[in-house]
Amino acid sequence: MSYVNPGSSYTRDSRYITTRITADGRDGFPVEPGRYRLVVSRACPWASRAVIVRRLLGLESALPMAVAGPTHDERSWTFDLDPDGRDPVLGIERLQEAYLARDPGYDRGVTVPAIVDVPTGKVVTNDFARITIDMSLEWKAHHREGAPDLYPPALRREIDAVNETIYKDVNNGVYRAGFAGSQEAYATAYTSLFARLDQLSERLSTSRYLVGDAITEADIRLFTTLVRFDAVYHGHFKCNRQKLSEMPILWAYARDLFQTPGFGDTVDFDHIKRHYYLVHQDINPSGVVPVGPDLSGWLDAHDRASLGGRPFGTGTPPGPVAPEEAVPQL
C-alpha cells in the first residue's frame, strides 16, 4: 500500500459519508442510546477527537465504542484486539464489511472514526469533523451531568475559523509533509506547518486555551496532532525543525491538556507508533518501530493555570475511565 505519489503533493481524499445522526432524525437516523457503535483506532488522530469528546461529554453508555487494532492493510482496519478477531457486537472482522453493507460498490477510504448502525450493520457516517460537533449538539440530551460546552454558541464562529486553519496547516499539514512526493511539496507543507505552530504559540502565550477561557472543540483538534508530534511526526514525517518538547509554550499547553481528565487517559502511544511505522511501509520499509521518545515529560508540571480559565468551564471533570476502555498509563 503506497501513501506517497512521487513528484506530487499529498491530497487527502475527503469524500466522506455525510449522513448525520440527529435529535430529530431528519436524515433517517435519530439519536438513540445504544443503537449505534462508534468505531475508532487509538492510533488515528481523527478518531482520537471522537474518543476525547465522547468521554468529556459522558456518552460512553449512549454511544458504545469499538476499538480497532493499530495496524491495517489496503482493505481496512481490523478488530484484532477482540477475541477471535471480531467485534463482539457487529460480528465483523474488518470495518470494510460495514462500509460494503452500506454500499456494495463503496470505493473510497475505509476510515475511522465511523459510526455504525448496529441493527443493520451499516456505516452511517465517517464525517469526522461533523461527528464531534454532533456529539455536542445532537446528543445533548444524553450528556452527563456537568458535561462541558465544547461548542458554545457565542464562540462558534471563532472556533470554526481556528479549526479551519489548524486543519489546513497542522492536522493535515503533517501529512502533507510526510506524504509529499517532491522536495518542493514537502518544503511548502513544512513551512506552512511551522509558521502556523509559531502563530498558535503566540496566541497561547497569553491564553490558556485557544478560544475563550475553557476547553473547546478547537483545543481537542489541536491536541490530537500535538500528542503525536514527537512520537511520529517529527521523525517519520520529517517535521523536524523542532520537537514539540522544544517549543516551550505549545509543549506546556499540550501537557496541560494531557493531564486533564479525558485527554491523556485516552492516549495509547504504543498504538500510535505501531500504526505509523508499520503501516506506512513506503516511508519506513524496515518496519522498525522506534523505542523512544521518553514519554515521562508529559507528566511534568505545566504552570498553565496561572493564565486563568477553567478546563471545563462551569462543568466538572469526567469520572474514572471504565476498565474496559483503559489505556496504559505513563
UniProtKB/TrEMBL annotation:
**Entry-linked Pfam families:** GST_C_2 (PF13410), GST_N_2 (PF13409)
> Could you name the domain of life of the organism this protein comes from?
Bacteria
Q: Where is this region: Disordered?
A: 309-330
Record the organism. Answer: Streptomyces violascens
Q: Which SUPFAM superfamilies match?
A: GST C-terminal domain-like, Thioredoxin-like
Q: Which InterPro entries match?
A: Glutathione-S-Trfase_C-like, Glutathione-S-Trfase_C_sf, Glutathione_S-Trfase, Glutathione_S-Trfase_N, GST_Omega-like_C, GST_Omega/GSH, Thioredoxin-like_sf
Residue runs in coiled coils: none
The protein's name is Glutathione S-transferase
PANTHER family linked to this entry: GLUTATHIONE S-TRANSFERASE OMEGA-LIKE 1-RELATED (PTHR32419:SF6), GLUTATHIONYL-HYDROQUINONE REDUCTASE (PTHR32419)
> Where's the GST C-terminal domain?
152-286
CDD domains per UniProt = GST_C_Omega_like (cd03190)
